[in-house]
Amino acid sequence: SQAAGSDLAAIKYTADALSEAGNQAKAQIVYNLYLEALVNSMAENKEAELISLAQELAYRDAAACNPYLAEEIFKKIKELNPDYVFNEETQYLRAYNLEKMKDYAGSQREYLVLVNKYPDTLHYGEALFKAGAISAYALGDISAAQGYFTRLIDSGKSYPQVFASIYQMGLI
Questions:
Q1: What is the rounded CA–CA span in Å between residue 165 and residue 145?
Q2: Are 53 and 31 spatial neighbours (Cβ–Cβ below 8 Å)?
Q3: What is the pTM of this model?
Q4: Beta-carbon neighbour count of residue 145 at 10 Å?
Q5: Neighbours of 19 (CB within 10 A)
Q6: Which of 7, 57, 108, 161 is positioned for an S-S bond with 70, CB 3.0–4.6 A?
Q7: Count H helices, E strands: the chain?
Q8: What is the pLDDT of residues 57-66, one digit of tens each?
Q9: What digits encode the pLDDT tens for the residues 96-125?
Q10: Within 13 Å and on the Cβ side, how many CA atoms surround 124?
Q11: At what angle do helices 124-133 and 142-153 cross, to 10 degrees?
Q12: How far apart are the C-alpha atoms of 160 and 164, rounded to whole Å?
């Protein structure tokens, strides 16, 4: 058990070193090996344990984090259990993590999952606004952006992002 733990630590250390060196492609391969070994070492409640680990590693300003490994963990959870539904905060965290990784298409997809599965979320205004901004400025889909901004404006809620959406509609 101790040997397995040290093997896992060595694999993760290698992946972290590759990531810090800017070699994300190789780091991702090693992270996947790490995750396979980690999952195989878990007995039960794999999803809960993996979510806890992803939450620790997801992007945070001015804190130690590893958003790339966090995203690999989110993917692994879905691979292990395709029907697993993240709770509201975990769904937001995944979308935000992808945004900070500059995976804008993935981030937009996850923000939209959040607003569609959790329409009463406290993150609704932010998530829908970000989906619109990503559509317009990262993905170049002005029509989709207008749709997301309009949906937010027409929500009847007083989110701060409603005013930002009105401004963005004027710009585009």
A1: 10
A2: no
A3: 0.83
A4: 23
A5: 19
A6: 57
A7: 9, 0
A8: 899 887 778 8
A9: 999 999 999 999 999 999 999 999 999 999
A10: 18
A11: 160
A12: 7
Two structure tokens written together for 112: 């939209």
Reduced to 3 states (helix: H, G, I; strand: E, B; else coil), residue 127 is helix
> Using CA atoms, how far apart are residues 86 and 91, in angstroms rounded to an integer?
6
CB-based contact 145:132 (threshold 8 Å): yes
Give residue 96's identity as a one-letter amino acid code: Y
Cβ contact 115:127 at 8 Å: yes
Segment 116-170, tens digit of pLDDT: 999 999 999 999 999 999 999 999 999 999 999 999 999 998 899 999 999 999 9
Residue identified by tokens 């691979």 is: 79
Detail the DSSP E strand segments found in 9-140.
none
C-alpha–C-alpha distance, residues 23 and 26, integer Å = 6
